[in-house]
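User: Sequence recovery, please. Input:
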């Protein structure tokens, strides 16, 4: 049995399953980076080919990028939120910046929703799980927090169980580079537009797929998901 299977087998998913329309699928793993050049981080990407084309592609050593956060549920999307410093310059996320975003952006946005029954799910990245951050989220969601160090633990390195990772970010990235943005402001506008234009039915299907993944992994005790992973 995989680590994911062991954790899910010990988690009572019935406390989550009836309310899946009301689950916030929180921050994707390390958030999402959008490079101005459309650059893809190939650390975990490998392409095998029978031919050796003897070609090369030049890329900047430190390409410009945006770091973007969203929360997704069946009823909508909160965000995007772009991490910037006090001078308005784009920055990456750390524990303090993440907690400031939760305090100053996410929690105020929740006032537009009935938070009494909402769940919040986030991955176990270090910047998400500082004690002060977990306490802040528990103050808002109580026991309806799915997180490392939270009331309901969540298996690490499980991007295939996080809708933003396995669907939203890829969907957005497939569209925002169509007009070849030349500035970060242009890229930011594209990201906002694509997310704002997302159809409600697409979010419903995303969450339905998420619950199917939970059911499959629990029933199979953590085995790899076959074609269900592609049914969106």
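Assistant: Recovered sequence (232 residues):
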């Amino acid at each position: 049995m995989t680590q994911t299977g062991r954790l899910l087998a010990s988690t009572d998913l019935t406390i989550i399953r009836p309310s899946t329309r009301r689950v916030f699928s929180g921050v994707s793993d390390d958030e999402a980076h959008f490079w101005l050049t459309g650059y893809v981080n190939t650390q975990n990407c490998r392409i095998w080919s029978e031919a050796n084309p003897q070609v090369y592609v030049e890329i900047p050593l430190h390409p410009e990028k945006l770091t973007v956060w969203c929360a997704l549920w069946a009823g909508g999307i909160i965000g995007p939120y772009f991490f910037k410093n006090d001078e308005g310059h784009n920055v990456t996320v750390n524990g303090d910046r993440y907690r400031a975003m939760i305090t100053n952006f996410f929690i105020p946005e929740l006032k537009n929703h009935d938070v009494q029954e909402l769940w919040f799910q986030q991955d176990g990245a270090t910047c998400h799980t500082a004690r002060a951050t977990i306490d802040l989220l528990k103050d808002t969601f109580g026991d309806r927090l799915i997180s490392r160090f939270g009331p309901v633990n969540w298996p690490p390195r499980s991007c295939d169980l996080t809708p933003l990772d396995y669907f939203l970010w890829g969907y957005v990235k497939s569209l925002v580079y169509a007009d070849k943005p030349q500035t970060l402001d242009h890229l930011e506008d594209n990201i906002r537009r694509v997310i704002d234009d997302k159809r409600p039915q697409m979010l419903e299907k995303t969450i339905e797929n998420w619950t199917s993944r939970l059911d499959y992994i629990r029933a199979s005790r953590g085995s790899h998901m076959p074609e269900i992973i592609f049914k969106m």
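Residues 200-220 form the longest helix (21 residues).
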